[in-house]
Amino acid sequence: MKKLFLTLTAALTVLAVNADVKNAKPVFELNCNAGDFSLLRDISPNNSKIVIHNQDKLGWCDGPDGKALEFVAEYPDPYTPRACLEVPQPKNFDATKGFTMLVKFKTCKNFDYKKRYQFMHLAQGTDNITGFSIFFSWRTFQCRYGEKSKVAAHSNQSKVVFKADTWYEGAVVYDGKKMSVYINKELHGTEDKAQVPPINKRCKLYIGATSPTGAGYGCVGAISSIKLYQEVFTAEDIANLD
């Protein structure tokens, strides 16, 4: 009887965790499919204010869910002002406790494997960062993390060869101990003993660049949506996403 009770308890616990993830609400959600800059907003419960920088370097293109936000400018000089969205750090978000980030993105037509295309940045620094930064570089989708660090979890080149002008779904999951990267719902790579440090509350969340000015990196391509959750999704959760 005791064994049966423990088995039922474990099963109910798993169901509860799955139910929590299924009903999880993002702390930040950018749904950029309206084809209208005035409608760009955080539709999460936080409803954070979004500031658009260098809008002349932004446009719209056909995406999987409507008109997606397109970053159209090339950046031959790292000091060129960059198009990006600036958002306050989400309320009550604690990266050290674990998180899940989902992004639908399209590579640009002049796709260069050697360049860094920035998707999300919540960190101090651009190369040696304190926090976490999500981008594409050297044929891989990456999440750099740590304190004054260049360590990154990244996609597996043997599983996917990224092509120009193509849509992909990326996911990053940090559970407090390891960092995992997914492409098109498939687990690609995991870094064990990962540690994301506390992030300075004054740090802004940037979409499409490490910052709008100064030395850094920008995005060329398109983004259909970005979601950031405090919850830790499992591989099964990622596989079952709509």
Given this structure, which CATH class is correct? Mainly Beta
CATH-derived architecture: Sandwich
The portion of residues assigned to helices is 10-25%
Structural class: mainly beta
Distance between the first and last residues' Cα: 40 Å
Largest sheet: 8 strands, antiparallel
Give a structural overview:
This protein has 242 residues and is mainly beta. The protein has one domain: Jelly Rolls, CATH 2.60.120. The chain has helices at residues 2-22, 235-239, and strands spanning 28-31, 51-53, 58-63, 66-71, 84-87, 99-107, 117-124, 129-137, 140-149, 152-154, 167-174, 179-183, 186-191, 205-207, 221-229. A hairpin with a 2-residue loop joins strand 9 (140-149) and strand 10 (152-154). It starts with a helix and ends with a helix. Residues 1-19 have low confidence and may be disordered.
Question: In a nutshell, what does this entry contain?
Answer:
The protein is mainly β and 242 residues long. The chain has helices at residues 2-22, 235-239, and strands at residues 28-31, 51-53, 58-63, 66-71, 84-87, 99-107, 117-124, 129-137, 140-149, 152-154, 167-174, 179-183, 186-191, 205-207, 221-229. The strands form two sheets. Strands 1, 3, 4, 6, 11, 12, 13 and 15 form an eight-stranded antiparallel β-sheet that branches.
